[in-house]
C-alpha cells in the first residue's frame, strides 16, 4: 500500500478496515482459483466478503443508526411537518364535492381545517386519512 507523508499508513488509524482489506484479499484469491461453483448457502466466500466489509465499515462510521429501516421511516414520518391539503385535494381524496365538504364542516362532521390566511384554509392530510378510515370502519 502507498505511504502518506510522514510514513504513516492510512490503515494505521482504522484496524477494522485493515482487517477487512486483508480478508478481502484472502477471499478474492479464493475466488480467482478455478473451483467448482458451490451451492448457495454453503460457505460462500462472497457472502463472507460482504459480511466482513459491512462489519469493517460499520465500525468506521461514527454513531451508525442501527434502527431497523421500517422503524426509522416511521420515526422520520412522525418527525416531519404535517402535510396540508387544499380544499380541492381534500375533495379529490374523499370523492366528496367541495360544497358537500363545506356542509359537513358546518355540521361538525368533517375534520376541522387549518386557517392559513384570511381567505385560505387547508386540511391536515393525516386527519383526512383518519376520517376516511373511520368511514370505512363504520360500514361493518
Describe how the helices and strands are arranged.
Elements: H1 15-32, H2 45-60, H3 69-79, E1 84-85, H4 87-94, H5 98-107, E2 114-117, E3 120-124, H6 125-138
Antiparallel strand pairs: 1-3, 2-3
List keywords for this structure.
140 residues; 3-stranded antiparallel beta sheet; 55% helix; 2 domains; elongated; 6 helices; Arc Repressor Mutant, subunit A; mainly alpha
Q: Helix share of residues?
A: 55-70%
- The secondary-structure class comes to mainly alpha
Task: Tell me the major beta sheet.
Answer: 3 strands, antiparallel
How many helices? 6
Q: How confident overall, as mean pLDDT?
A: 76
Biggest sheet, spatial arrangement of strands: 1-3-2
In short:
With 140 residues, this protein is mostly helical.
Explained architecture:
- With 140 residues, the protein is mainly alpha-helical.
- It has 2 domains: 10-64; 84-138, Arc Repressor Mutant, subunit A (Orthogonal Bundle), CATH 1.10.10.
- It contains 6 helices and 3 strands; from the N terminus they run αααβααββα.
- It has helices at residues 15-32, 45-60, 69-79, 87-94, 98-107, 125-138; strands at 84-85, 114-117, 120-124.
- Strands 1-3-2 form a 3-stranded antiparallel β-sheet.
- A hairpin with a 2-residue loop joins strand 2 (114-117) and strand 3 (120-124).
- Helix 1 packs antiparallel against helix 2 (45-60).
- The longest helix is centred in the first third of the chain and has 18 residues, at 15-32.
- The model has no long low-confidence stretch (mean pLDDT 76).
Amino acid at each position: 500500500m502507498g505511504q502518506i507523508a510522514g510514513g504513516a499508513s492510512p490503515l494505521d488509524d482504522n484496524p477494522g478496515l485493515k482487517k477487512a482489506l486483508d480478508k478481502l484479499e484472502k477471499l478474492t484469491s479464493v475466488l480467482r482459483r478455478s473451483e467448482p461453483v458451490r451451492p448457495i448457502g454453503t460457505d460462500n466466500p462472497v457472502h463472507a466478503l460482504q459480511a466482513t466489509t459491512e462489519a469493517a465499515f460499520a465500525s468506521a462510521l461514527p454513531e451508525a443508526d442501527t434502527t431497523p429501516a421500517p422503524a426509522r421511516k416511521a420515526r422520520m414520518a412522525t418527525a416531519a411537518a404535517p402535510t396540508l391539503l387544499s380544499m380541492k385535494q381534500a375533495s379529490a381524496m374523499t370523492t366528496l364535492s367541495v360544497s358537500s365538504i363545506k356542509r359537513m364542516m358546518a355540521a361538525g362532521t368533517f375534520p376541522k381545517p387549518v386557517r392559513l390566511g384570511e381567505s385560505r384554509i387547508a386540511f391536515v392530510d393525516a386527519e383526512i386519512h383518519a376520517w376516511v378510515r373511520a368511514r370505512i370502519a363504520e360500514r361493518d
